[in-house]
C-alpha cells in the first residue's frame, strides 16, 4: 500500500482515524503532504518544492537513496542485535562507527553505547550518571527539552511547565536558561557566565540542605527548543566544576546541535573552549540522517561504574549493523562534502544577511547563532523585549505559502529558528532572507502605520477605530484562536495580520 495512492485529504482522514491525536503535525490546519525530498528541498504531492530551513534530522541532505544505498543493502541481510559480532566484509560496523565517532571527540570520551533515539540516549545518560554517582537529583535548564520518555519529560520544562508543582518530579531542579538576550543576566552584565553558573551552585546548596544529592547537570550545548540560546563562554566550565564538586556529572545533549552544525567545531560543547569536556555526551537526530539511531559516549570511569552494577546492558536494535553502516555513511558524507565547512561559511553569510535586516526592521530584537544554527528573536519593543509571537507565526505561515519551511520556538514562540540541512547554500540564505524582509516590511507597515494613525486622531469615530483595533489585537493575539497552528508540538493562537488589517479598516 503506497502513500502516494491516497489523496492528501484521505491521508489526513486516515491519520485522524488511526494515529493518536496528540501526535504533532506541522501547519495542522493545512498540512503539507511530503512525497519526496532531495538536498535541501522537500516535494509535495503536486510536485511543488519547499526549501527546508528547519530539518536538522536530514543533516547532510534529504535523501531517499544515496546515503542509505551506500551502506544498508549489503548489511540488511545480516541485521540483528548487538549480542552477536557481525562482520560485513572485514569490518564490524558498530565498532568502526564507535572508533570514527570517538576520533571526533576529546580522548577522555572513550566509550560508546549505541541506541535508537535521542530519548533513549538521554534516558541511558541519566542511568549512567545515577549509577556512577550513587546520587539521584538532576539539574536541568529552564525551557529545556530532552525527550519524550517519562524520565525525560521529568527533566524537560519545555513540556512539564504545563504540569502542577505536585506532578513535577521532586528530584529535578531547574536553573535559569543562560540567555544573555532575554534572561536574568544579559549581555550588559559584566560576567553573565559566572552569574548563571553561581545560580547552579545555589541550587546545589539548596538541594543539599534538603538532603538531595546531585547526580547530573544536563543541558543542550546550545538550547534549541528553548529559543536558540547560546550560553556565554565559560558557563559550562564553571557549572561542571560546581556539579563535580557536588559529586555529579555533566551531560551535554548534542541531539540537535552536533555533527558539525556549528561550523567551527564538530560538537557544539567545544564552543565553550578546549578546557571543557563533558562526562557524558548524547547524540541523535543527524547521526543517521533520518534513520533511527543514536549514541551515548562517556568516560571509562562512568562506563566501568555502570558495569559494576552487575546488570548487563541489552538493547535489541542498538548498534545493529545496518544502523551503524548508515551512521558511517553519514560521517563519510559530512567529511567528503565538507559540510561542516559549508555550515561555517553559509551560516556566517546567513547571519550577516540577517544582521542587515536587524538594522532595517524594528521587529528584529536579536540575531544569534553559530554555523547553521541561527535564531532570530522578534519583539514588538526593543526595550521591553515584548515578544512578537503573532508576528513570528505570521512570518512562518507566509513563508510556507511561498514554499519555504521555517519554525518559531522558544518560551514565547517568537524566535525564528534556522537549522537547515547542512547542504544549505548562500543562494538559499539570500532567498529566505529576501522573503522575510518583504514580510517584515508589510507587518511593520500594518502594525505601526495602522496603530499610530488611529491613535493619533481624536474624533469620536476614530476613537472607536482605536478601541476596535486594540480589541482585535487583545482578542486574537492573546486569547482566541483563529487558526489552530501547530509548531513544534505547540498549538498557537494565530491571526493573519491580513485579517487584522481588514478588521481595522
Ligand atoms: C535536544 C533534544 N534531545 C533529545 C531529543 C529526543 O530525541 P528523539 O525525538 O529522537 O527521542 C530531542 C528531540 O527533539 C531534542 O531536541
Automatic annotation (TrEMBL):
Its main location: mitochondrion. It catalyses: phosphoethanolamine + H2O = acetaldehyde + NH4(+) + phosphate. Transmembrane segments: none annotated. The keyword Mitochondrion applies. It is an enzyme of class 4 (lyase). PANTHER family: ETHANOLAMINE-PHOSPHATE PHOSPHO-LYASE, PTHR45688. It comes from the Eukaryota. This is Ethanolamine-phosphate phospho-lyase. Coiled coil: none annotated. Signal peptide: none annotated. It is found in: Mitochondrion. Catalyzes the pyridoxal-phosphate-dependent breakdown of phosphoethanolamine, converting it to ammonia, inorganic phosphate and acetaldehyde. It comes from Astatotilapia calliptera (Eastern happy). Its cofactor is pyridoxal 5'-phosphate. Belongs to the class-III pyridoxal-phosphate-dependent aminotransferase family. GO terms for cellular component: mitochondrion. Keywords: Lyase, Mitochondrion, Pyridoxal phosphate. One of its GO terms (molecular function) is ethanolamine-phosphate phospho-lyase activity. Its EC number is 4.2.3.2. Homotetramer.
Amino acid at each position: 500500500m503506497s502513500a502516494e495512492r491516497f489523496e492528501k485529504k484521505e491521508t489526513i482522514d486516515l491519520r485522524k482515524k488511526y494515529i493518536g491525536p496528540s501526535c504533532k503535525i506541522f501547519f495542522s490546519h493545512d498540512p503539507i503532504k511530503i512525497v519526496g525530498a532531495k538536498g535541501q528541498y522537500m516535494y509535495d504531492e503536486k510536485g511543488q518544492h519547499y526549501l527546508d530551513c528547519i530539518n536538522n534530522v536530514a543533516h547532510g541532505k534529504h535523501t531517499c537513496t544515496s546515503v542509505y544505498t551506500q551502506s544498508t543493502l549489503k548489511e540488511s541481510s545480516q541485521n540483528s542485535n548487538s549480542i552477536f559480532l557481525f562482520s560485513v566484509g572485514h569490518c564490524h560496523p558498530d565498532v568502526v562507527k564507535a572508533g570514527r565517532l570517538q576520533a571526533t571527540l576529546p580522548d577522555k570520551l572513550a566509550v560508546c553505547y549505541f541506541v535508537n533515539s535521542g530519548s533513549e540516549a538521554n534516558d541511558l545518560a541519566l542511568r549512567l550518571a545515577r549509577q556512577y554517582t550513587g546520587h539521584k537529583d538532576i539539574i536541568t535548564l529552564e525551557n529545556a527539552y530532552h525527550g519524550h520518555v517519562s524520565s525525560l519529560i521529568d527533566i524537560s520544562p519545555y513540556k512539564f511547565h504545563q504540569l502542577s508543582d505536585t506532578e513535577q518530579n521532586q528530584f529535578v531542579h531547574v536553573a535559569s536558561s543562560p540567555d544573555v538576550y532575554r534572561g536574568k543576566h544579559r549581555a550588559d552584565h559584566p560576567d553573565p557566565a559566572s552569574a548563571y553558573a553561581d545560580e547552579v551552585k545555589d541550587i546545589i546548596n539548596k538541594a543539599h540542605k534538603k538532603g538531595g544529592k546531585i547526580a547530573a547537570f544536563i543541558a543542550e550545548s546550545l538550547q534549541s527548543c528553548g529559543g536558540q540560546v547560546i550560553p556565554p563562554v565559560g558557563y559550562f566550565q564553571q557549572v561542571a566544576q560546581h556539579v563535580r564538586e557536588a559529586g555529579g556529572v555533566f551531560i551535554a545533549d548534542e541531539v540537535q546541535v552536533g555533527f558539525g552544525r556549528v561550523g567551527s567545531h564538530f560538537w557544539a560543547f567545544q564552543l565553550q573552549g578546549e578546557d571543557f569536556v563533558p562526562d557524558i555526551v548524547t547524540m541523535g537526530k543527524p547521526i543517521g540522517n533520518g534513520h533511527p539511531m543514536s549514541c551515548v559516549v562517556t568516560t571509562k570511569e562512568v562506563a566501568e561504574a555502570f558495569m559494576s552494577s552487575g546488570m548487563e546492558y541489552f538493547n535489541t536494535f542498538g548498534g545493529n549493523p545496518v544502523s551503524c553502516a548508515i551512521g558511517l555513511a553519514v560521517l563519510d558524507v559530512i567529511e567528503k562534502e565538507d559540510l561542516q565547512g559549508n555550515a561555517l561559511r553559509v551560516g556566517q553569510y546567513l547571519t550577516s544577511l540577517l544582521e542587515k535586516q536587524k538594522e532595517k526592521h524594528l521587529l528584529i530584537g536579536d540575531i544569534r547563532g553559530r554555523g547553521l544554527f541561527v535564531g532570530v528573536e522578534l519583539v514588538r519593543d526593543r526595550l521591553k523585549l515584548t515578544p512578537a509571537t503573532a508576528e513570528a507565526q505570521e512570518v512562518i505561515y507566509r513563508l510556507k505559502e511561498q514554499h519555504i519551511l521555517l519554525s518559531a520556538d522558544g518560551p514565547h514562540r517568537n524566535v525564528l529558528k534556522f537549522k537547515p540541512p547542512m547542504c544549505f547554500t548562500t543562494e538559499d540564505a539570500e532567498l529566505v532572507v529576501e522573503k522575510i524582509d518583504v514580510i517584515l516590511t508589510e507587518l511593520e507597515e500594518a502594525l505601526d502605520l495602522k496603530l499610530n494613525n488611529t491613535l493619533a486622531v481624536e474624533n469620536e469615530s476614530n476613537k472607536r477605530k482605536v478601541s476596535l483595533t486594540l480589541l482585535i489585537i487583545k482578542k486574537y493575539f492573546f486569547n482566541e484562536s483563529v487558526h489552530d497552528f501547530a509548531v513544534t508540538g505547540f498549538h498557537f493562537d494565530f491571526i493573519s495580520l491580513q485579517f487584522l488589517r481588514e478588521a481595522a479598516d
